[in-house]
């Protein structure tokens, strides 16, 4: 079979150029800047700077606050991903059973995805802020000591719920598609054999959508890691007492509030390594195992 | 361009009242919200209408820390605004940026204005000057923390409406009484714990916040916040929180909402919060900032908070002339008097203070002179000139985190204050 070859030697490079340029400008350049910055100790205005080698990394990794932040991130990401997946799957199976107005329900369920993270955060803050939130008043009137401003666990619950709420729509879309790809005949055959709807779900539906679930798990973890800054900033600002300070939030706080640019850059380099690792996992497993019908 | 379109554009320019000659635009980045934001817009408009050469454009940049960060980022990108409002704790950060900023005296001179320090209130001038006396920024909104109380709740609890508590011990006791009487669920709340309960607590009670005159005499500062007077104070506050008498609102001014909604009977907050209190229509009274009855020479004097206006270096002469003219406009006695009466911020010139006094404003509005008298009542000591650290925003962050752990009942007051000193000192040493 003859190989398809471009007649012009330069055309392929020309066609690739825009993509390469974008990657260079938006990834390699800032990434190299971060690497460079992470080896410096500098005043906020950039008037004096000093090369310190790996001292910033040593300081970050030896900082108990950083290790605390790693734990916070793991708790936050796992809770958010699990909650968003479980609720989305529940809603998707429920939406499958609806006979009339299917499209209407689906559209409603997809809407929250269009809400920006910061707006989503504010929405939940307005509902649950102890000083002005409607639901906060209801909770307090019911005798529950609701105060996420001081109670770290409650603050964590609040940001997890807000973050998960936003991601449910995305998961819902994928689950609906996955559910539709399951052959009706399989489910009907099981029903004829007398399998209850719970039994059918766990023995037929769930295994068949497992690849999608795994894919979504990775996507959701990455989302919880990196795209939830706006929510955390709006709802808790990383507090109380660092209870919701994730790694990404700490990069921002140390760099832009505490003005420690070197330490902040070192943290972002570590984060970059984590992203690369996560992406590698995603490619190795997800690409191999997911089949879209 | 055809003659017709030339005429058209001429007509357009005339009808929209745009000046036909070049106007220098001056961006003013600020962090004012609510009633105070309206004041900023009004001032810019009045200045723009008063002359034709310059146009001040106010741009809201978020909270105080966000505005400072925006300024720093702009400096690094060489895209600085003409004027930037920097909050009190950012003063140390800006002062460290030698060469990046232009001292306000030089800016005023560029506008042909002689800068006369003696016209300004001494406490404020001292805070915004270098140790050698050069005043670096223009004091736009200076405030000092005061006690607000809800007169209706006081009446309901059977307390003397015209006699607010004077010491912290009295405040705490009154707050308990109010809760017990059922007049309101929350007796006391406070905005800015770091500013009010540490920085001003130190000055007002005349106890050191740190060595080196709290950083005004040198940068090698060691914090002294784990002395018994602080530990006792925060122990009392934590006890109140446990009883539900004190309610924590947040790190900055969030707690104001708890007072405005009538949930909390007393509030310590900046005098600059007055605009919103007035707007809410609440039946309020004002008292002096409480002091500790165990402090020997209390009350001493409070230190100014709020913010000042900084000018970046590297601008054109034309721009400096415009900025100088704007500062001159802001210093006018009438403008200052209005600013003071409307917003609760302090007048920055002595003339404006005298004129407000003469107008009978303080007789009609009892308590409104309090923030000035408590700041100017006594000659400042080494403990009460202010707090200046190269990284005060970061130190406040550490303090807030520790307070949150304390108020949540996770650690006791002694541990809290020890942690603040230990972590704070390490951060200060790192920032040198």
UniProtKB/TrEMBL annotation, chain A:
Membrane topology per record: Multi-pass membrane protein
Coiled coil: none
Keyword Cell inner membrane: yes
Subcellular location: Cell inner membrane; Cell membrane
Transmembrane segments: 12-31, 74-95, 107-127, 155-180, 201-226, 265-286
Keywords from the UniProt entry: Cell inner membrane, Cell membrane, Membrane, Transmembrane, Transmembrane helix, Transport
PROSITE patterns: ABC_TM1
Any single Pfam family the record assigns to this protein: BPD_transp_1
Transmembrane helix found in the keyword field: yes
Predominant place of localization: membrane
Domain ABC transmembrane type-1 span(s) in chain numbering: 70-282
Domain of life: Bacteria
Subunit-structure text: The complex is composed of two ATP-binding proteins (UgpC), two transmembrane proteins (UgpA and UgpE) and a solute-binding protein (UgpB).
Function: Part of the ABC transporter complex UgpBAEC involved in sn-glycerol-3-phosphate (G3P) import. Probably responsible for the translocation of the substrate across the membrane.
Family statement: Belongs to the binding-protein-dependent transport system permease family.
Protein name, entry field: sn-glycerol-3-phosphate transport system permease protein UgpA
Organism lineage string: Bacteria, Pseudomonadati, Pseudomonadota, Alphaproteobacteria, Hyphomicrobiales
Chain's gene name: ugpA
Automatic annotation (TrEMBL), chain B:
Protein name as it appears in the record: sn-glycerol-3-phosphate-binding periplasmic protein UgpB
Transport in keyword set: yes
Keyword list, A-Z: Periplasm, Signal, Transport
Entry similarity comment: Belongs to the bacterial solute-binding protein 1 family.
Location(s) in or outside the cell: Periplasm
Cited InterPro entries: Bact_solute-bd_prot1, SBP
Protein function: Part of the ABC transporter complex UgpBAEC involved in sn-glycerol-3-phosphate (G3P) import. Binds G3P.
Major localization class: periplasm
Family annotation (CDD domains): PBP2_UgpB
Region (Disordered): 361-389
Keyword Lipid metabolism set for record: no
Quaternary structure (record): The complex is composed of two ATP-binding proteins (UgpC), two transmembrane proteins (UgpA and UgpE) and a solute-binding protein (UgpB).
Signal peptide: 1-22
Pfam families the record matches: SBP_bac_8 (PF13416)
């Amino acid at each position: 079979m003859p190989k398809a070859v471009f007649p012009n030697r330069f055309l392929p490079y020309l066609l690739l150029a825009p993509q390469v340029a974008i990657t260079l400008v938006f990834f390699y350049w800032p990434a190299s800047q971060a690497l460079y910055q992470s080896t410096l100790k500098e005043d906020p205005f950039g008037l004096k700077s000093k090369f310190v080698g790996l001292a910033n990394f040593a300081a970050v990794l030896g900082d108990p606050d950083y290790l605390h932040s790693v734990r916070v991130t793991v708790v936050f990401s796992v809770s958010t991903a699990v909650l968003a997946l479980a609720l989305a799957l529940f809603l998707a199976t429920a939406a499958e059973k609806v006979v009339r107005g299917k499209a209407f329900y689906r559209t409603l369920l997809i809407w929250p995805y269009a809400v920006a993270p910061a707006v989503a955060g504010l929405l939940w803050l307005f509902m649950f802020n102890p000083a002005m939130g409607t639901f906060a008043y209801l909770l307090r009137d019911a005798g529950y000591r609701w105060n996420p401003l001081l109670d770290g666990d409650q603050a964590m619950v609040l940001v997890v719920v807000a973050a998960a709420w936003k991601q449910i729509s995305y998961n819902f879309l994928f689950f609906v598609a996955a559910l539709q790809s399951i052959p009706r005949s399989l489910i009907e055959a099981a029903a004829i054999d007398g399998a209850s709807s719970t039994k059918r779900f766990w023995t037929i539906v769930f295994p068949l959508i497992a690849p999608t679930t795994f894919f979504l798990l990775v996507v959701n973890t990455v989302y919880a890691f990196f795209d939830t800054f706006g929510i955390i900033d709006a709802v808790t600002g990383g507090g109380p007492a660092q209870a919701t300070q994730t790694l990404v939030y700490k990069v921002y706080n140390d760099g832009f509030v505490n003005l420690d640019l070197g330490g902040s850059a070192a943290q972002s380099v570590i984060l970059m390594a984590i992203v690369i690792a996560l992406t590698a996992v995603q490619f190795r497993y997800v690409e191999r195992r997911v089949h879209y019908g | 361009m055809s003659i017709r379109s030339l005429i058209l554009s001429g007509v357009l320019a005339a009808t929209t009242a745009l000046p036909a000659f070049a106007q220098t635009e001056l961006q003013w980045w600020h962090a004012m919200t609510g009633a105070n934001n309206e004041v900023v817009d009004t001032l810019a408009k009045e200045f723009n209408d008063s002359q034709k050469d310059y146009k001040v454009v106010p741009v809201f940049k978020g909270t105080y820390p966000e505005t400072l960060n925006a300024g720093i980022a702009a400096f690094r990108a060489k895209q600085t605004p003409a004027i930037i409002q920097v909050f009190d704790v950012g003063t140390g950060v800006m002062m460290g940026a030698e060469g990046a900023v232009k001292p306000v005296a030089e800016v005023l001179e560029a506008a042909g204005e002689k800068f006369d320090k003696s016209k300004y209130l001494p406490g404020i001038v001292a805070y915004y000057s270098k140790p050698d006396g050069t005043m670096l920024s223009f004091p736009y909104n200076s405030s000092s923390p005061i006690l607000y109380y809800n007169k209706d709740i006081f009446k309901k609890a059977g307390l003397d409406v015209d006699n607010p508590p004077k010491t912290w011990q009295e405040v705490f006791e009154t707050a308990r009484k109010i809760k017990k009487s059922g007049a309101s669920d929350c007796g006391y709340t406070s905005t800015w714990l770091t500013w009010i309960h540490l920085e001003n607590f130190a000055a007002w009670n005349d106890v050191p916040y740190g060595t080196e005159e709290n950083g005004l005499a040198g940068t090698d500062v060691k914090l002294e916040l784990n002395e018994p007077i602080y530990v006792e104070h925060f122990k009392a506050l934590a006890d109140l929180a446990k009883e539900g008498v004190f309610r924590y609102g947040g790190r900055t001014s969030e707690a104001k909402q708890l007072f405005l909604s009538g949930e909390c009977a007393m509030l310590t907050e900046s005098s600059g919060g007055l605009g919103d209190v007035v707007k809410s229509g609440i039946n309020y009274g004002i008292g002096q900032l409480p002091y500790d009855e165990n402090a020997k020479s209390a009350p001493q004097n409070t230190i100014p908070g709020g913010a000042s206006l900084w000018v970046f270096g590297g601008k054109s002469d034309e721009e400096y002339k415009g900025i100088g003219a704007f500062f001159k406009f802001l210093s006018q006695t009438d403008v200052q008097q209005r600013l003071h009466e409307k917003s609760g911020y302090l007048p920055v010139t002595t003339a404006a203070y005298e004129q407000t006094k003469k107008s009978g404003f303080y007789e009609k509005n009892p308590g409104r002179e309090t923030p000035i008298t408590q700041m100017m009542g006594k000659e400042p000591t080494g403990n009460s000139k202010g707090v200046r650290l190269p990284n005060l925003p970061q130190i406040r962050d550490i303090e807030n985190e520790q307070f949150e752990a304390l108020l949540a009942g996770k650690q006791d007051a002694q541990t809290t204050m020890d942690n603040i000193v230990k972590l704070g000192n390490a951060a200060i040493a790192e920032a040198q």
